[in-house]
Amino acid sequence: MSEEILKTLVEEIPEVESALIIDEDGIVVYRYDSSRSSIDSEELATQLVNPIKSCDETFQDLTDGKEVLEETVIFSKNYAIFIYNLVNETYLIAIARRTPLYGKTRFKLRSRLPKLIKAL
Fold first, then answer.
1. What is the pTM of this model?
2. How many domains does the chain have?
3. Which residues, other chains included, contact 63 with Cβ-Cβ below 8 Å and sequence gap of 6+?
4. Where residue 59 sits, what CATH number does that domain have?
5. Which is nearest to 26 in space by CA: 117, 74, 83, 90?
6. Does residue 111 lie in a domain region?
7. Phi, psi of 54 (to 5 degrees)
8. Which end of the chain is less packed: N or C, by CB atoms within 10 Å?
């Protein structure tokens, strides 16, 4: 089910090239890459998990555990990488081509999160 949701997400959002669900150790649980994907999504995702966990822990420490890091966006010259904290120490990582309308891509991704979380 989750794999199908990732496939639909990548196919319906033209900017998104890859989508992955990874666990807290950086192990890929589900992955879908489009044919237009030009970077190694698995390598990128596994390298991102520790810094994201560290930022989340810092944020929780600073707010006495009242807040968690729900969403992170990283921009490079050509990509926008959207990272969402899902459930049970899992993360959605969506790798998208950077556009001036990245907010539209973000909105489309966020609107699909409840369905994805329910499937997990």
1. 0.91
2. 1
3. none
4. 3.30.450.30
5. 90
6. no
7. -65, -45
8. N
At 12-55, the pLDDT tens digits run 999 999 999 999 898 999 999 998 888 899 899 889 988 998 99
Six-digit token string for 15: 């900017």
Report whether 103 contacts 115 (CB < 8 A).
no
- For residue 120, count other CB atoms closer than 10 A to its CB: 15
Residue 118 lies in a domain: no
Residue where the block lists tokens 């990582």: 93
- Domain extent at residue 81: 2-100
- Is 105 a domain residue? no
Query: How far is residue 91's CA from residue 106's CA, in Å, rounded to a whole number?
Result: 15
Is 114 within a domain? Answer: no
